[in-house]
Write a structure and sequence with these properties.
By secondary structure, this protein is of the alpha/beta class. It is 29% helix and 28% strand. The chain is built from six helices and eight strands. The site of guanosine-5'-diphosphate has 14 residues, from helix 1.
Amino acid sequence: MLISDRMLLKVIVLGDSGVGKTSLMNQFNKQYKATIGADFVTKELHIDDKLVTLQIWDTAGQERFHSLGVAFYRGADCCVLVYDVNIQKTFETLQTWHEEFLKQADPSEPENFPFVLLGNKVDTNGGTDRAVSEKTAREWCALKRNIPYFETSAKENYNVDEAFLCVAKTALASE
Ligand code: GDP
Ligand code: MG
């Protein structure tokens, strides 16, 4: 959506309960502005000469029941999928979240809709005892028309800013 010379992009964050969605967004708490049913935080970024505001929506735990209302999805400009690199099941469910997003948000060009995948909690086992390798995750992304992939740690604030910069760029590129 274009508001004068500012870009406002709606970003929604999906993934199984417990993968760290809320923790990732809490990195941006200082810019917290409002609550409308579901919570969102805002993050402002300068990209080229544009001021871009990400409005990042979080669930309030309803993801457990896959019962997020249509208003949550409506008008999304980018969908961030999150899994926990230490729990295989959260990786397998990505497929469901991907499909559910496309069904609910119903974007005009589903095959070109921007997604970004985050493999979170890369701190937990120091990478030695992971359930899902980076290679496996990247292969899944390649099958989905090259979804950008980031390994993150909300706990250590690792790669989170980089990931959301990519979210903004990916969403802008598909405007
Ligand atoms: P959500 O259900 O997806 O919103 O997940 P939460 O953000 O509530 O996080 C679930 C649990 O995982 C909490 O105990 C967090 O402290 C923890 N957590 C979240 N992100 C990380 C991370 O990057 N590393 C580690 N070690 N723990 C995390
Ligand atoms: Mg949460």
